[in-house]
Specification:
This protein is mainly beta. The chain folds into two domains: 104 residues, Immunoglobulin-like (Sandwich), CATH 2.60.40.10; 677 residues, TonB-dependent receptor, beta-barrel domain (Maltoporin, Chain A, Beta Barrel). Helices cover 5% and strands 65% of the residues. It contains four helices and 50 strands. The protein has a 28-stranded antiparallel sheet that branches. A six-stranded mixed sheet has the order 10-11-17-18-15-16, with no helix packed on it. The longest helix has 19 residues. It starts with a helix and ends in a 19-residue tail after the last strand. It is found in: Cell outer membrane. Keywords: Cell outer membrane, Membrane. Pfam families: CarboxypepD_reg, OMP_b-brl_3.
Length: 802
């Protein structure tokens, strides 16, 4: 396997160099009449009167048209409120080009909002990878969960855990703010969000000290759409999809900017009906390894989901230096499920001994609400202070009803019902200060305090052979949890001629109190914990020349066990499978080291190493009655070595290719029922091909592949992947976009693997409703005009984000 990986990476390197031999980069800097850089300008590359590609300028006004084939071109720069400029007959020959374009203000009014360019699906920026959903036709009509599943290096396992670059433990942010959810609750929230509401996703493997220290493998930051255009504008998206069952997820985005006020609003609706098949074959062994019994469990999950999400925000520029922001968001998630399962106990020879059939009905209601207020104060030309206060509330309700019927002479009917409400209240206050010490140096510092209070109740009752319902005090539970986190950080960045250095240090203090209220069977219990830590981070970047850039980054991270995992209550999965929390769960700490090399805009290679102590792992325990208990705990340490290569190129003028190969070697050392060691070599490949089929029609073929993998000490996953394709074209004089796609064409996005237990093992395969046909239509509307010039913290109102 290792040899094949090295051959693959070598092939990518050779291919990249040969393709680049006949290509050059064009670097364009766009500025206004006062020589100030313009961010968000559209730079188009035109060949024989036909636009073949476009890019967006960054904060310094620069944009790069990379890998341009030798020849003569026109280059056009445009920006809202300015007159477009064209450089004619630009010759691309032996060397890269550096050009400057100056735009003059225009007082003409734009009659219509028109998308003039498209971003690439994948962009690499300092310290992060950026995914632009609108650049991919196969993202039409999807949810954020489905978008993440096809993002480079992201995987969601069957237990709803999210991993990044083959490492579990991810901090998920929405608009730079933590969700404070994990597992199924987090997946339910992300499943309620439509991809059409997302502007971009940032994948940050080694975050700076400015971010929370949580997240062993890094941060996934989901940035929702918010137009920067002046005036009233918006868009509406209609989408219909068909898998095994029909789905739909329309959305509406509205924006209004004028003078000192800015408003934005988004709403998304999501309806889906899905089916999932799970087959599990569990074999029990005696002390010498001979099979003693077999448990075969086929299960069918049928689910319906009806979700609403909204967000409103406003910004008011009170003075030239002071502005205020306000946001309000919420969601209403309702999921109903009906599951049928059968458990057949067999002899080692495969003869059925007894059978239990189970029907389970569940209804999950998830209501969220969040409010945020803040100020942006420009203290001087070089200093700024941002203050934010946020409050959020999650109200979860889960009702379950299980009925199990056993056949044969020992037959019985056993029913269990549960009512599991959960309430989460979150408060946080953040202050961030930044100062440009000079043109080459910048200092940032900040403080944050947050408080989380949860109230989780689980009331179970049982009925045997249709007898009256009686409380099951042994399974019932009432769990109260309160957590406080206080943090402070400082960070300094210094630029030299070819060298950029950033160093930061973050301190976090955590205190929590947990109280399990008792009943007539279960005694009261409580526990508290205090811990703190220093979390250094930083990077060094060296630009050797115009072609080669080297970067070294280091950081220490922490993963805290979620309150759901600390709660010791029992959750029923089926008759012989339970899930239980672990009140003795401790945080895990990680050191991350990463060395990377960038060859122009063509090839990016990375070598990284991570050491995780008190490693989190899903644990699979066996009860005396043969039931399987899922829980989580600290098992030891993990060594993670990763080698990756990302190739971004244009083999032809009509074909753009972005592909990444990630090879990881993991070594896990821990203790479950005895000293346990496991290791694995894992290969992940992500590919995205964009095609210009005609002047109006664009196409895409994308795919992901994950080889044998292991995120947990006791569980190994077999290879799986998917291939998707899509088309998009503008309609209605460029005011609308029509897209169609098919995801998981060959229905291969299934999860299959093997789990080891004490004196048992289990083979499983999970088949999801993953092959989906989608058609979507997006219509953009509104007018924009030139606004009065303001030198305020909201100057970026003039920027266009397409």
């Amino acid at each position: 396997m290792k040899k094949r990986v090295l051959v693959l990476l070598g092939f990518i390197c050779v291919l990249s160099v040969s393709l680049y031999a006949q290509q050059r980069n064009i670097i364009i800097k766009v500025s206004d009449e006062k020589q100030l850089p313009i961010e968000g300008a559209v730079i188009a590359l035109i060949d024989k009167g036909k636009e073949i590609r476009s890019v967006i300028s960054k904060k310094n006004g620069e944009a790069v048209l990379d890998q341009v084939t030798l020849g003569a071109y026109d280059i056009k720069a445009s920006f809202t409120g300015y007159t477009a400029q064209i450089l004619s007959n630009v010759l691309v020959e032996k060397n890269d080009l550096y050009l400057e374009i100056q735009l003059k203000e225009s007082i003409s009014e734009l009659k219509q909002v028109v998308v003039q360019s498209s971003k690439p699906f994948i962009q690499r920026e300092q310290g992060k990878l950026v995914v632009n959903p609108d650049a991919s036709p196969t993202n039409s009509g999807t949810t954020v969960v489905e978008l993440l599943e096809k993002s480079p290096g992201v995987m969601i396992d069957r237990n709803n855990g999210i991993s990044l670059r083959n490492k579990s433990g991810v901090l998920v942010l929405i608009d730079d703010k933590p969700t404070y959810l994990q597992g199924a609750d987090l997946i339910n929230l992300l499943s309620s969000m439509n991809t059409s509401q997302v502007d971009k996703i940032e994948l940050i493997t080694n975050p700076s000290a400015k971010y929370d220290a949580a997240g062993n493998s890094g941060i996934i930051n989901i940035k929702t759409k918010r137009s920067k255009q002046i005036g009233f504008n918006g868009n509406i998206t209609l989408a219909a999809a068909l898998g095994w069952y029909p789905r739909t997820n329309p959305s509406l985005l509205l924006n209004y900017r004028y003078n000192k006020w800015s408003h934005y609003f988004s709403y998304g609706f999501n309806y889906s009906k899905t089916k999932t098949d799970i087959y599990a074959l569990r074999t029990y062994f005696d002390a010498v390894g001979n099979p003693t019994a077999i448990l075969e469990q086929p299960t069918v999950f049928n689910n319906k989901g009806l979700n609403h999400t909204f967000k409103y925000g406003t910004e008011y520029a009170a003075t030239d230096r002071l502005s205020f922001v306000f946001s309000l968001s919420g969601s209403l998630i309702n999921r109903k499920g009906r599951n049928t399962a059968k458990a057949d106990w067999l002899t080692p020879q495969g003869v059925i001994d007894s059978s239990v059939s189970t029907v389970a009905n569940s209804e999950n209601k998830f209501q969220t609400g969040a409010i945020g207020i803040g100020s942006r104060h420009k203290l001087s030309k070089t200093t700024q202070l941002n203050i934010d206060a946020d409050a959020a509330r999650y109200d979860l309700s889960n009702q379950q009803l299980f009925r199990s019927d056993r056949t044969g002479s020992m037959g019985y009917t056993e029913s269990t019902q549960g009512f599991i409400p959960s309430l989460i209240n979150i408060l946080s206050l953040t202050a961030n200060y930044s100062a440009d010490l000079s043109k080459q140096s910048k200092f940032e510092a900040g403080v944050k305090t947050s408080k989380i209070d949860t109230d989780n109740d689980a009331a179970y009752s049982m009925s045997i052979n249709n007898s009256p319902w009686k409380p099951n005090y042994g399974m019932s539970n009432h769990f109260l949890y309160s957590e406080k986190i206080h943090a402070a950080y400082g960070m300094l960045e210094q630029k030299f001629k070819k060298l950029t250095i950033q160093a930061g240090l973050r301190y976090e203090y955590t205190h929590y109190d947990a109280n399990q209220l008792g009943n007539i069977v279960v005694k009261d219990s409580s526990f508290s914990r205090n811990y703190s830590g220093l979390f250094p981070s930083g990077f060094i970047t060296y630009e050797a020349d115009s072609s080669h850039t080297f970067s070294l980054s280091i950081g220490r991270r922490i993963d805290r066990p979620s309150f759901q995992r600390l709660n010791p209550f029992v959750n029923i999965i089926n008759k012989y499978t339970l899930e239980r929390g672990n009140p003795f769960f401790r945080p895990q700490f990680t050191w991350n080291f990463e060395l990377s090399h960038q060859y122009k805009q063509l090839l990016h290679t990375t070598v990284s190493y991570s050491l995780i102590r008190d490693y989190f792992s899903q644990l699979f325990l066996t009860d005396p009655d043969g039931s399987l208990v899922y829980t989580q705990g600290n098992v030891g340490r993990m060594h993670n070595f990763t080698l990756s290569a990302m190739l971004t190129t244009k083999p032809t003028r009509w074909w753009s290719l972005n592909t990444e190969a990630i090879y990881t070697y993991k070594k896990l050392i821990g203790y479950v029922w005895n000293n346990y060691r496991s290791d694995i070599s894992q290969l992940t490949i992500n590919m995205n091909n964009q095609f210009r089929i005609s002047k109006k029609i664009n196409g895409e073929i994308s795919g992901t592949y994950t080889g044998r993998s292991r995120n947990d000490l006791q569980e190994e996953l077999y290879p799986f992947g998917q291939l998707s394709a899509g088309l998009s074209m503008p309609v209605l004089k460029n005011s609308g976009t029509l897209r169609c796609s098919i995801r998981d064409i060959f229905r291969t996005f299934w999860m299959e693997g093997m789990t080891d237990f004490l004196n048992a093992d289990e083979y499983f395969i999970l088949r999801r409703d993953s092959r989906v046909f989608t058609v979507s239509f997006t219509y953009r509307f509104g007018k924009t005009g030139k606004a009065a010039k303001q030198k305020t913290a909201t100057d970026e109102m003039r920027r266009v984000e397409l």
